Structure formats: C-alpha cells, structure tokens
Amino acid sequence: MNTNWRKLFALLLAFGLVAAACGSTADTVTDAAGDVADEVTGDDEEEAMEDEEEAMEDEEEAMEDEEEAMEDEGEAVTIDYWLWDGNQQPHYEACAADFTAANPNINVEISQFGWGDYWDGLTAALATNTAPDVFTDHLARYPEFVESGVLVPLNDFVEADGVDVNNYFPGLAELWTSPDGDRFGLPKDWDTIAIAANEDQLAEAGLSSADISNLDWNPADGGTFGEIIQQLTIDANGVRGNEAGFDGSNVETYGFGLEGNFGAFGQTTFSAFAASNGWTAVDGVWADEANYADPALAETIQWFADWIEAGFITPLEDVQSLGGTTIFQEGGAATMTNGSWTISTLSGEATSFPVAYAPTPVGPTGDRASMFNGLADSITTSSQHPEAAWAWVAYMASEACQESVGEAAVVFPAIPSATVIAQDAHAANGVDVSAFTTHVDDGTTFLFPITDSASRIEAAVGPVMETILRGEGTAAELLPAVADEVNSILAN
Question: Residues 343-347: what's their mean pLDDT?
C-alpha cells in the first residue's frame, strides 16, 4: 500500500473510532470500521494510531533507503556544459569522454556558442533558471553573476575533496573568490597579449622578427613601433607609409590591425598601450571607482584615432564588417596585437604565411604591459545535480584534463606542468610562443578589470570609443564625460 492510501485509510479509521467513542452515528464509515470502533477502547485507539504512524514512517524510511541505494549505484545523469571557443571544444569533449569512462553514470553534453550569442544566451538562461549545469566563466562577467546569486559557491566542495588551489599559476585561484571569501570557479587556463606579425610582409619590407622584438611606443610619435608600422603600410600604388607620396586614403595593406572593437577594456587592442602609458582601468579588484578621465588613457586612444585617420591602422568599419583576425590572415594588416588563445588560429592552416610573435612595446613608463586574464568553470544554481557538476568541474581543473588540453596547444592551461606541455607542443609545430609567456616571467602583466558592473561599463564606454575612433570627437573631450557615468555605475 503506498503512502497516500495509508494516510487516507488511517484518517478514515481514526474518524470512525472517534465517532464511535462519542456515541455518534458515522454513516460514512463502513460497518467493519464501526465494529472495530465498538471494540477498541480509547487507549487502544491511540495505540492503533501510533502503530499506523510508525508503519508509515517505516515505509518512508524504506523509500529513502531505496533512493540512497540508487544514488550509491550511480543513477545516470547528464551534465550540460557550455563554452564559447570552438577551438577548445573537441579537446574538452576528449576530457569528457575520459571523465565518463571513470564516472560511467555521469554524461557530459557540451554546447559551443559564438562569443556574443554565448553571453546573451547564458544571461537569459540564468534569469529563467534554465542555465547549463556548468559553464566557462570570464573575469569580466562573474562578479555580476555573484551579485545575482546564480552561482554555486565551491568552498565546501573544495574542502571536502582536498583540492589544492596552490597547484595553479600564482594568483589565478584567488581571482575567483569574492570579497567575502566565497569561491566561484576553479582555474582552467590563462592568457596574455603579444604582437603577431606576417613574416612574409616583414621580409618584403626588409625587416625580420628580431626587429619587432624590442620596440618602444609613445602617444606623441609612436616610437620605434610607429616607425615599423609605417614601414609596413602600403597604399594601392605600392608606396609605403614612410615614403614620399604615400596615400593614406587608399591603403592596400595596413601596418597595424585592430583585432576588434575597443570596448571599455580593450583587452586585445588598446590595453597594452594604455597600461604602458601609466593607465589603470580600476584601482584593484571589485573597485568602486574607475579611471576613465585619466589623460594617459585619452592620449592613447587619440593616438589610435589619429593613426587610423592617417591610414596606418585598419579603420573601425573594416574591422566590424570583416573581423580583425580575418583581415590579418588575409594579408590586409601586417601586424596586430592578439591573445595567446589565438595562436593555433593565427599559426594554423587557415593562415597562408608564417607568423612571428613579439612582446608588446615598451611604453613611456619604461615597461611593457600585457593584460593577464584567466578563465574558470562555474556551477549554476540551475543545476539539478550539483555533486555531479562539481565532479566535472574538478576534473577539468585537474592535471589529467589540463595536460590533455595542453597537448592540443590551444591555450595555456592553469597548471604549470600543463603549460609546459602546451609550449612544447607549439615548439614541435615550429611556433615560438615565448612572446606571450615572457610577460608572466618578467612580471609585466596587469589584471583584466574585475568589477561587478562590467556589462554596464561596456555599454557606456564602448560607443564613446567608437565615436573617437571614427574621428567624430576627441578623446580629451569625450572620455571625462563618460568617466562620471562609469563612476556613478560603480558607486551604485
């Protein structure tokens, strides 16, 4: 007899017994129940009800024991995992296959989306409690998710499984903790920014990869970096940017290409130059004030706008319509700054020329600068299987998975031994990636700004940057105004 019928029977029985004790007539009680009521005393009635309650409790305990046994046996569950990088997807699918082989009752289903669709879809899914169990998280986004309460703190999981967060590159694990000490991700990889150059175009200009390895830059005349990109720029008549008669309004090959829109933080575009000019976006993590009114930023952005106007840097419209990486791969720009996660793309089969990499140029501060970012995997509160989700997160953060990903040479994994494997894999492919790792080795990195208002800051600053790059206003005029808006956002 199931629990609901037992409860109904008990109620009917109790009703009949009470009615009989009071001498009332219970027409709705069966004759059998009435007979029992006549024979059972008040004490017997209470004892019978207690026996019935005990029987019900025994049945509930048996059902709980059965459920626990099913869990112990490992009832099959599926964990949904989202990521945005198509280059990494097959390698995490390989990790998932190894993980399921070791955990036969946990299947991992991986979905990949383009950058914009990824965040739009994830934001909508989190708002409707339909998000994936686990997703690749970004430093620019996770503070907002923490504030919204849609991420599962991992502290108890980490402690219970004895995960040593010191296994990762110094500082990576700490980036994924909130001000109150809750941890919301385990590191999966890290990245820096460096110069990428078309070696064929360098050679045609009489230059070599060594010539771009020790450059300097300033916002007044561009320094030796500016000299190089002028030399690499060629107009439609074959005249180079440093030669008489150069036509900056009719350019065939730009000396320097933008990877994408500037946005608020310019990770692959202006950030290295602005930082080497002394600018910091925010003063520390989770800051409540930013520095968009700093003249060091205005000088940097204006230099880009002026050199776009002069014809040495790809126009924003071309980047938006064609894509900065595509322009570079097709020979439309001789150099660009880009992230270490693009090495396998830039040096892959889709690029018909060899690519040389160099550290970012030394700026007016006397140092190079390269934005340092790290990704992690987070669990959402939408997950119906947090224990299984944690098992998958812990596996992705383990040496087994990270060394497997390192062999694929698509990113620099968060565990040092796995990064060495990635470096060796690149070297075996004839690619020297030291331009990216040297920034970590010599301490010339700075953090991607971590704030709980990144998307709102992006929405405020991005359009202003575009206006400046199109020559529709100066950085000195427009940035101080948006700085007040940014600080208002951070203060609320």
Answer: 94
Q: Which two tokens stand for residue 395?
A: 């596996």
Domains and CATH numbers, the chain: 3-72 (no CATH), 78-184+374-425 (3.40.190.10), 193-371+426-491 (3.40.190.10)
Res. 68 pLDDT band, cuts 50 70 90: very low
- Binning pLDDT at 50, 70 and 90, where does residue 48 land? low
Residues ≥6 apart with Cβ < 8 Å to 222? 229, 230, 303, 307
C-alpha angle 291/276/487, rounded to 5°?
10
Place of tokens 């106007």: 309
User: pTM for the whole thing?
Assistant: 0.81
Q: Which phi and psi (to 5°) does residue 349 adopt?
A: -65, -25
Does residue 232 carry a pLDDT above 50?
A: yes
